[in-house]
């Protein structure tokens, strides 16, 4: 009798399931219908390819100074040559090669910063949600304190303590992003905690760790993925800002923001030195933000209807 | 209402102590010896070094240094700059009007155009205009503003020659800092000496345009996006349908019934921009050589001027917290549901 009921239920469930697309397919179709997100994704793929293949694709060594070709304009302008497609900078270095190698720096630092922040962000956010009166209070105050300083200013202060350099830039940007992840995880975990399935799991004797990581965390992934994407783009902006101020990656490394630090002197004489590094930052960050928007719409249908 | 404000204030006390600990520790972890930096690093007389350490209180244990620091703060003593020997509070107070003036203009730019574009996009939902506004907004949000500043200087200052490159006013004018706000001071200067200072106000305005656009770009992007989505949400409400059904003009429905209610969430977003503005001011002031607190802080970091970095950051943090508190309270007044939910 019991078996009969069960099998009936199962077959009913499978019928219902067949009429809905799988979550993955639903996500893919929603994401690929978003033209902006798709364009952003394609640009990002190109950027990653350029970064990975830079040593083979880049026409020149990014640090090589061609002293006979200083401040040479891009190919299409009078005085430009085919061997320096986007022109050369004040030391005669090929700008295109520097941008391609710079993509490695920016993408790697940004990505690492997100990964470094993600783990403590998840752990602390979950702790704050599960123990709202002890850990929660303390951690949220800490987040308040960190968020009371603008992220660029906090990153600058941390860089002043740690000193300039690639690893330190990564750490500074990771620390700055931490309160954001903590809050996102805490908020979505707290809304999950009130749901029936968590109660059921609790009643059937699941421990805190099991509740945290098996029951609650997988259901907090959607906002977390979106936050991580947006965190990636703001990390790239922050690295560039630090580099521009002279506190981040140090010259002659071809970091995009560092390339702009000296560009101010060439505003009147060499527009290409100023224009291309910034344009690359803008397009990369824009592409990531477009992907982030697409992810949010695809992962959270409620937001899509509201927007 | 009163208890709501009190509760918000009570939360501030631990936050304040937390920030003082943060700024105190931050500066003590900085590599390099402040006394060495001040005395010029080479051939230092050990006696002089010791007396300098004692004078700055750097020879005491860390917790005593903190208590001393906190005691000073509570009496309104924010320390003295290592390099200029003037009080940090005095320097801050002298430079803050420049940043405030720039911030207000940037926020005005961002708010006026942001709300306008957001409303237009919401009314014409799905049109080319809507897509254009949203595209612009996302581009603005993704903008590295230091590069944006350089591009604008390149176009409007170098190529077209319309606006000055840097500073707050041309050196040819004799403007006394009565209020610290160049727009007001230049008018006073113009009244006092109409012959010599004619055109000072216009010159100050021209100096403000590019930095305000640069600093206002991200607020513009955020506000236009928020206005659009919050307008669309309100436009779906029953009372808007009622307003339309009883025959009110479309303009009245949009501005009186929809926009006013949509403004609740827009006001919050505007309040949150204060932090963005001060962060952006660091970069904007560096590009335009604007003598404000952003440039002051960055210069202090490069000079290793500990008290300025430490207490400058502290003042900025307290400022942001107070603004956020004000936004919270105003929000509670505007929207009683928030007040009673807590």
Write up this protein.
The complex is a heterodimer of chains A (307) and B (342). By secondary structure, chain A is mostly helical. Chain A is built from 14 helices and no strands. Chain A has helices at 2-19, 23-33, 35-52, 54-57, 95-130, 132-147, 151-162, 166-193, 196-203, 208-216, 221-245, 256-261, 271-299, 301-306. In chain A, α2 (23-33) packs antiparallel against α13 (271-299), α3 (35-52) packs across α5 (95-130) and α8 (166-193) runs antiparallel to α11. In chain A, 43% of the residues are buried. The mean pLDDT of chain A is 84. Chain B is mainly α and 342 residues long. Chain B has 14 helices and no strands. In chain B, α5 (88-123) packs across α9. At the A-B interface, α6, α7, α11 and α13 of A face α1, α6, α7, α9 and α11 of B.
What labels describe this entry?
heterodimer, A: 307 residues, B: 342 residues, 14 helices, 77% helix, globular
Write the layout of secondary structure elements.
The complex is a heterodimer of chains A (307) and B (342).
Chain A: H1 2-19, H2 23-33, H3 35-52, H4 54-57, H5 95-130, H6 132-147, H7 151-162, H8 166-193, H9 196-203, H10 208-216, H11 221-245, H12 256-261, H13 271-299, H14 301-306
Chain B: H1 2-28, H2 34-39, H3 46-56, H4 62-74, H5 88-123, H6 128-141, H7 145-159, H8 182-192, H9 200-235, H10 238-245, H11 250-288, H12 293-303, H13 306-334, H14 336-341
Helix pairs in contact in B: 1-13, 5-6, 5-9, 5-11, 6-9, 7-9, 7-11, 8-9, 9-11, 10-11, 11-12, 11-13, 12-13
């Amino acid at each position: 009798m019991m078996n009969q009921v069960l099998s009936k239920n199962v077959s009913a469930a499978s019928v219902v399931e067949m009429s809905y697309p799988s979550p993955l397919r639903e996500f893919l179709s929603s994401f690929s219908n978003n033209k902006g997100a798709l364009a952003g994704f394609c640009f990002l793929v190109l950027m990653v390819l350029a970064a990975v293949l830079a040593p083979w694709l880049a026409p020149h060594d990014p640090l090589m100074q061609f002293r006979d070709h200083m401040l040479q304009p891009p190919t299409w302008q009078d005085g430009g040559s085919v061997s320096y497609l986007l022109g050369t900078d004040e030391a005669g270095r090929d700008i295109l090669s520097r941008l391609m190698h710079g993509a490695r720096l920016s993408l790697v630092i940004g990505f690492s910063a997100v990964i470094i922040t993600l783990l403590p962000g998840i752990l602390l956010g979950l702790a704050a949600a599960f123990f709202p009166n002890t850990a929660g209070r303390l951690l949220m105050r800490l987040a308040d304190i960190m968020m009371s300083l603008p992220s660029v200013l906090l990153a600058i202060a941390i860089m002043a303590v740690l000193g300039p350099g690639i690893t330190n830039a990564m750490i500074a940007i990771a620390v700055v992003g931490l309160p954001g992840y903590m809050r996102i995880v805490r908020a979505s975990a707290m809304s999950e905690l009130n749901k029936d399935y968590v109660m059921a799991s609790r009643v059937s004797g699941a421990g805190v760790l099991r509740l945290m990581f098996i029951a609650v965390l997988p259901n907090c992934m959607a906002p977390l993925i979106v936050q991580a994407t947006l965190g990636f783009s703001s990390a790239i902006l922050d690295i560039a800002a630090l580099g521009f101020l002279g506190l981040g990656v140090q010259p002659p490394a071809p970091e995009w923001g560092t390339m702009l630090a000296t560009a101010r002197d060439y505003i009147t004489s060499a527009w290409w030195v100023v224009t291309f590094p910034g344009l690359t930052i803008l397009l990369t960050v824009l592409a990531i933000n477009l992907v982030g928007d697409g992810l949010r719409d695809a992962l959270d249908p409620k937001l899509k209807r509201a927007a | 209402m009163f208890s709501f404000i009190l509760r918000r204030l009570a939360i501030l006390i631990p936050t304040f102590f937390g920030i003082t600990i943060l700024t105190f520790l931050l500066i003590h972890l900085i590599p390099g010896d402040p006394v060495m930096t001040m005395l010029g690093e080479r051939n230092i007389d050990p006696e002089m070094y010791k007396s300098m350490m004692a004078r700055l209180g750097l020879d005491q244990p860390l917790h005593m240094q903190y208590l001393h620091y906190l005691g000073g703060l509570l009496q309104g003593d924010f320390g003295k700059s290592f390099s200029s020997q003037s009080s940090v509070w005095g320097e801050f107070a002298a430079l803050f009007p420049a940043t405030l003036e720039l911030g207000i203009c940037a926020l005005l730019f961002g708010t006026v155009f942001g709300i306008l574009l957001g409303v237009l996009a919401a009314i014409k939902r799905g049109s080319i205009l809507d897509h254009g506004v949203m595209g612009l907004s996302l581009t603005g949000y993704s903008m590295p503003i230091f590069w944006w500043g350089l591009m604008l200087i390149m176009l409007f200052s170098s190529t077209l020659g319309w606006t000055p490159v840097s500073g707050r006013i041309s050196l040819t004018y004799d403007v006394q800092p009565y209020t610290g706000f160049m727009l007001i001071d230049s008018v006073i200067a113009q009244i006092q000496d109409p012959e010599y200072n004619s055109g000072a106000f216009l010159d100050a305005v021209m100096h403000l345009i590019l930095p305000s656009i640069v600093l206002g770009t991200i607020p513009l992007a955020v506000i236009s996006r928020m206005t659009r989505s919050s307008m669309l949400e309100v436009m779906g409400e029953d009372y808007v349908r009622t307003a339309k059904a009883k025959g009110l003009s479309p303009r009245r429905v949009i501005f009186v019934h929809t926009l006013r209610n949509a403004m609740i969430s827009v006001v919050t977003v505007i309040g949150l921009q204060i932090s963005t503005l001060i962060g952006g001011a660091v970069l904007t002031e560096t590009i335009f050589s604007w003598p404000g607190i952003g440039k002051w802080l960055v210069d202090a970091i490069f000079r290793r001027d500990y008290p300025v970095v430490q207490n400058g950051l502290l003042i900025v943090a307290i400022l942001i917290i107070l603004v956020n508190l004000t936004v919270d309270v105003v929000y509670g007044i505007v929207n009683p549901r928030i007040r009673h939910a807590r």
